[in-house]
Design goal:
This protein is of the alpha/beta class. The chain has helices at about 10-15, 45, 60-70, 100-110, 130-140, 150-155, 170-180, 185-200, 215-235, 235-250, and strands at about 50-55, 75-80, 80-85, 95-100, 115-120, 125-130, 140-145, 160-165, 210. Strands 2-7-1-8-9 form a five-stranded parallel sheet, with helices on both faces. Bound molecules: guanosine-5'-monophosphate.
């Protein structure tokens, strides 16, 4: 288990300590369906589960990176988006996306079921609402793989969100990857490349940039970001717990020194 300092010691907190949002594995029920309870009045802002938002131009290697990181880091759940685009040959319903018709998508928009949605390259994509309090109690953090338009909306609505932009090593390599993938005709690839540069122009406001030169290095960087953000979120809880332990050991009130 990778995590923050003493929280790795099960003797201190039992199998799941409520402040540690990373003690469960990534599997389990989805918290991002239409059945979760959050709203535009800021429900998301009260919660404490971390939301990691990853954006990258199509073909930057995001899927491979995320698959590896999800295997390596416990307590992460991938938010499966809804889309009107058709599945690619290697994609599975409910795992990669929920593939829905434009009319179902429209109804979901009307019913206010999305935290955010956007049109990307002629198709619609949406993230179902998130209940970050429930994330916390389930002991997971959420990963969103969304474009920069969606990321901006999440930034407005969700506290404890962390924004990571994945850059391809070069536009040429991006083009090579898209061609090799063999899923798109040349005009779509040109469209994707033009859109990629638009996406990159949004990268400066993200918290982190990872250049996907070597996938193992990119995995290491994303893993480190996740662990560091978890530690940052838990700093007060760690401090309080440590003071309590020291007090128990020494009979002194160390906690009163904390402002
Ligand atoms: P693709 O069709 O290549 O899977 O995805 C195209 C783009 O849509 C990618 O940049 C991806 O991050 C983005 N995307 C996927 N799901 C969502 C979503 O729920 N919301 C938004 N705004 N973008 C999404």
């Amino acid at each position: 288990m990778r995590g923050c300092g003493f929280l790795q010691n099960p003797g201190l907190a039992g199998p799941r300590w409520t402040h540690a949002s990373f003690l469960a594995d990534g599997a389990g029920s989805s918290l991002t369906g239409g059945d979760v309870n959050s709203n535009d009045q800021g429900t998301e802002k009260k919660g404490r589960g971390l939301v990691f938002v990853i954006s990258a131009p199509s073909g930057a290697g995001k899927t491979t990176l995320l698959t590896k990181v999800m295997q390596e880091v416990p307590g992460l759940r991938f938010s499966v988006s809804y889309t009107t685009r058709s599945p690619r040959s290697n994609e599975q319903e409910g795992k990669d996306y929920h593939f829905i018709s434009p009319s179902t998508f429209r109804k979901m928009v009307e019913r206010n079921e999305f935290l955010e949605w956007a049109e990307v390259l002629g198709n619609r994509y949406g993230t179902a609402r998130i209940n970050v309090d429930a994330l916390e109690s389930e002991g997971v953090d959420l990963i969103l793989d969304i474009d920069t338009q969606g990321a901006k909306k999440v930034k407005e609505k969700v506290d404890h969100s962390v924004f990571i932009f994945l850059l391809p090593p070069s536009p040429r390599l991006l083009e090579e990857r898209l061609v090799k993938r063999g899923e798109d005709p040349p005009e779509t690839i040109r469209f994707r490349l033009a859109n990629a540069m638009k996406e990159v122009s949004e990268a400066p406001w993200y918290h982190y940039i990872i250049v996907n030169e070597q996938v193992e290095e990119a995995v290491r960087q994303l893993t480190s970001i996740i662990i560091a953000e978890r530690c940052r979120k838990l700093k007060n809880a760690i401090l309080k717990e440590k003071m309590r332990q020291w007090e128990e050991q020494d009979g002194k009130n160390y906690g009163r020194r904390l402002s």
